[in-house]
């Protein structure tokens, strides 16, 4: 870790705890800042705040009072989940107090080069693939960000021999100042998180922040199949590495005659890869581009791609029960992700879907439901999804109370050779704390089902 003095004796407010807030407060305290932590949860119910108080950090809990800003803070480190419309945050903006997220701290103290990955879909799989390929090639990677450990915790341990592979959300990237990854990856940009960003333009600009500080010594890997994305990052000074699943790119990464080609060099035959789906081909191309820039050979890449079966909760194969293959795609919290999952399978699909109602309809999903033989629905959006299912001509549509009930029903209405796919097309928060909880309940129900057969 770099021993920087940027924060020494500065009054800094860490707004919101969770893992990133705890890490930021701890790091700033170690760097000599006068840290105050403000968290919504009451102190007596907040073991994280209690632990920070024991370290000598000032802790204020129970609400986010705007009058707290009268104490003369020079910087705010904001939890990414707290919107900029929050009254305290809005007042800070009016007072011109700089606001950053924890990823900015990680960058400033990291001795390791950073590979940053963002995008609407596929960033977790891409991040994991890059990490595994670097690991296979003995490049000493460390994984951080939205996946794994908080970035500033990892940065505190990383040396110049390491490579930090960091998954980045739009929320995190809104709060960067100097952040500059040596290699930046944007998998794709679609409409998402409008409840936070208000407009797609705001969301897209946040994603583009990954390259805003890059120089000609850095690299930007970007999906060349999205013209809108190419225009979005046209300002970047980084060396441009395009990837495409739709056309051959001589100076980039693409597919030609069933093989992945990197700058004219054959890397691997598509048929050898375990991960299903065209959306995963995009992730694979992006990952190959990143690791090739770091000197990883084809053998290491092949070893990963011929053994890796997927990231947890992302089109993750769970089990084969009497000829039915069960897949957990609980991370599909939007329509686009479910479209991609459905496109990955040729076999008849029993689709388990539903969740938080964000006010949108699901008729754009209709063309992708042609291979769905039965719909099993739950959550707030069940009725809306039923409308889309009927529009697609699906005859077998069922309603259940939750994911756990959906699993045994899916077995009853399916046949050998079918795919049972949990791909909700919705966030989980109407019934489950996180998509991970939803996915884990699905996985447990599948294992319970298997034991009963």
Automatic annotation (TrEMBL):
Listed under GO cellular component are: cytoplasm
Sorted alphabetically, the Gene Ontology BP terms of this entry are:
cell division; cell wall organization; peptidoglycan biosynthetic process; regulation of cell shape
Q: Where is the Mur ligase C-terminal domain?
A: 313-426
Recorded hits in Gene3D superfamilies, A to Z, give: Mur ligase, C-terminal domain (3.90.190.20), Mur-like, catalytic domain (3.40.1190.10), NAD(P)-binding Rossmann-like Domain (3.40.50.720)
EC annotation from Swiss-Prot or TrEMBL: 6.3.2.9
Q: Known HAMAP family for this protein?
A: MurD (MF_00639)
MF GO annotations: ATP binding; UDP-N-acetylmuramoylalanine-D-glutamate ligase activity
Q: Name one Pfam family in it.
A: Mur_ligase_C
- Write out the residues that bind ATP: 119-125
Identify the residues that the record assigns to the Mur ligase central domain, covering every copy.
Answer: 117-291
Q: What pathway or pathways are given for this protein in its record?
A: Cell wall biogenesis; peptidoglycan biosynthesis
UniProt keyword list: ATP-binding, Cell cycle, Cell division, Cell shape, Cell wall biogenesis/degradation, Cytoplasm, Ligase, Membrane, Nucleotide-binding, Peptidoglycan synthesis, Transmembrane, Transmembrane helix
Q: Could you tell me what this protein is called? A: UDP-N-acetylmuramoylalanine--D-glutamate ligase
Localization per record: Cytoplasm
Where is this chain primarily localised? Answer: cytoplasm
């Amino acid at each position: 870790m770099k021993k920087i003095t940027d924060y020494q004796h500065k009054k800094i407010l860490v707004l919101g705890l969770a893992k990133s807030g705890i890490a930021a407060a701890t790091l700033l305290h170690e760097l000599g800042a006068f840290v105050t932590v403000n968290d919504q949860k009451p102190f007596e119910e907040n073991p994280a705040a209690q632990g920070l108080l024991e370290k000598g950090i000032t802790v204020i809990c129970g609400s986010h009072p705007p009058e707290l800003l009268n104490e003369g803070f020079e910087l705010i480190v904001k939890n990414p989940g707290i919107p900029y419309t929050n009254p305290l945050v809005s007042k800070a903006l009016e007072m011109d107090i700089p606001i950053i997220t924890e990823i900015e701290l990680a960058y400033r103290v990291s001795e390791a080069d950073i590979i940053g990955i963002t995008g609407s879909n596929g960033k977790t799989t891409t991040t994991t693939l890059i990490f595994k390929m670097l690991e296979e090639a003995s490049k000493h990677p460390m994984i951080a960000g939205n996946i794994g450990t908080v970035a500033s915790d990892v940065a505190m341990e990383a040396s110049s021999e390491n490579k930090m592979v960091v998954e980045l959300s739009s929320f995190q990237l809104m709060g960067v100042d100097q952040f500059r990854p040596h290699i930046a990856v944007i998998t794709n940009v679609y409409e998402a998180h409008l409840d936070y960003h208000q407009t797609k333009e705001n969301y897209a600009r946040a994603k583009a922040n990954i390259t805003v500080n890059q120089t000609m010594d850095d690299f930007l890997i970007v999906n060349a199949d999205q013209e809108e994305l190419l225009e979005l990052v046209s300002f970047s000074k980084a060396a441009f590495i395009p990837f495409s699943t739709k056309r051959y790119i001589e100076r980039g990464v693409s597919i030609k005659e069933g093989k992945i080609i990197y700058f004219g060099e054959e890397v691997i035959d598509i048929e050898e890869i375990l991960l299903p789906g065209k959306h995963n081909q995009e992730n694979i191309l992006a990952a190959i581009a990143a690791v090739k820039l770091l000197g990883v050979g084809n053998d290491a890449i092949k070893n990963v791609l011929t053994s890796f079966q997927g990231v947890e909760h992302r089109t993750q194969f769970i089990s084969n029960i009497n000829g039915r293959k069960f897949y957990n795609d609980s991370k599909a919290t939007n329509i686009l992700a479910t479209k991609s999952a459905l496109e990955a399978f040729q076999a008849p699909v029993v689709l388990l879907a539903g969740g938080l109602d964000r006010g949108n309809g699901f008729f754009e999903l209709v063309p992708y439901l042609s291979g769905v033989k039965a719909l099993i629905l739950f959550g707030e959006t069940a009725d809306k999804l039923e409308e889309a299912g009927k529009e697609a001509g699906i005859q077998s549509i069922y309603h259940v109370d939750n994911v756990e009930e959906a699993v045994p029903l899916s077995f009853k209405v399916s046949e050998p050779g079918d795919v049972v796919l949990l791909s909700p097309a919705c966030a989980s928060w109407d019934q489950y704390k996180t998509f991970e909880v939803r996915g884990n309940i699905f996985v447990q129900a599948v294992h319970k089902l298997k034991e009963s057969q």
